[in-house]
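Late entry, glutamic acid complex.
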Amino acid sequence: MNQQVFRFAPSPNGLLHLGHAYSALLNDRMARESGGRFLVRIEDTDETRCKPEFTAMIFEDLEWLGLRWEQPVRIQSEHFDDYVANLMALWSVGALYPCFCSRKIAAAHALQSFDPDGQPHYGGTCRALPRELAEKRISDGAVHGWRLNMARLGDQEASVWGDAVIAKRHVGSSYHIAVVTDDALQKVTHIVRGKDMEAATSMHKVLQRLLELPTPNYTHHPLITDESGQKLSKSLKSTALRHLRNGGVTPADIRRRLGFD
Ligand code: GLU
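Prediction complete; structure with ligand written out below:
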């Protein structure tokens, strides 16, 4: 039987907290129990939010927790070419269109409905732009992002996202296209991540279908909450692994608290 492949794929836009520790430990345990592989991947395509300092701290925190993973680690910001190749493949089948709207213009024409992240659905200004015109604007150097032409795809589950951004202006990629590209390239078979990612999975499945990539097995685990039942966030100092460690908490304490004993 083929080996199962698991991954923990943090974005270095803040410190790892207990929720990340849970996800990483769970993926590692499932990999070990199945005799499979455990990968760590750094999802830093959004260079406006991600910082190399956080990447260094992620490795340090995971090592401190006692985790070990395969080398070399895939760092997404080093692989924009792979994501752009898939973007172009999607454009060639008409699944995407370039969007020239600034954030302000998109907001002004947004619909009154919202995606699962709470963002208003795009009003569709650039959807009908003829391809030749769009190509001309691109070759003239107009700043643009890329959106999924959801109506054309007719996928009911993913339609909650509207014409989602698949490559951001000034970034050249987005989380969605990068994650789907890398999971396939790295032959990830099992994706185990928090329930907060559940809605995004429908989008990832659409992209896999369009790009003719295999769909891994998805599991969404409950989110770790703080004492008052609130979702943890990267801004919450009290649950950051680094702060816990500085306060004398040991890796064994963390494993016990998260149920990994
Ligand atoms: N990079 C994403 C994050 O840190 C999670 C990616 C995933 O597990 O698919 O929120």
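Strands lie at 5-8, 37-42, 74-75, 96-99, 145-148, 165-167, 190-194, 217-221. Will revisit in the morning.
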